[in-house]
Amino acid sequence: MIPSLLLEDLRRRPDLFLWNGPISTSAIRKWEQEQSLCVPAPLVGLWTTQGGGDLFETETVLQPVGSQDSNLIEPVSRVYWSRGMNPEYYVFHTGVWCSMFRKMDGVMFCSKSPDFSRMVRLDDLNEWYGLLRAEYAERYLLSGP
To answer: Structural domains in the chain?
Structure first.
């Protein structure tokens, strides 16, 4: 369930990505049950193939388990909750903006406003990666959509 454009960029420009490595589906489901939340299926797909990690130098995809606290969803989300983000959301990406999913149904959003007043609903990870890639395409000479 990795966005096709992300797969293409991984193939063409592996130097732009530093992944932590796959996470087992069982570890993700265990975390999901412990936290009583619904993780978006596309995000589970990304984690089970790549894990979390860094891309485009300044962007971080957080993960639920198996990494340093600075790359884990729970502690990073606590920081954002203390800054005013509704605790009904978990952050899964930080960088030029933050991306999150709603705990009760797994719907994904991004917010470019520091006070989270303008959250934009994302249809899927394709849309998320497309928005993120648009920020960096020219700088990294990424061709195509």
So the answer is: 4-136 (3.40.1580.10)
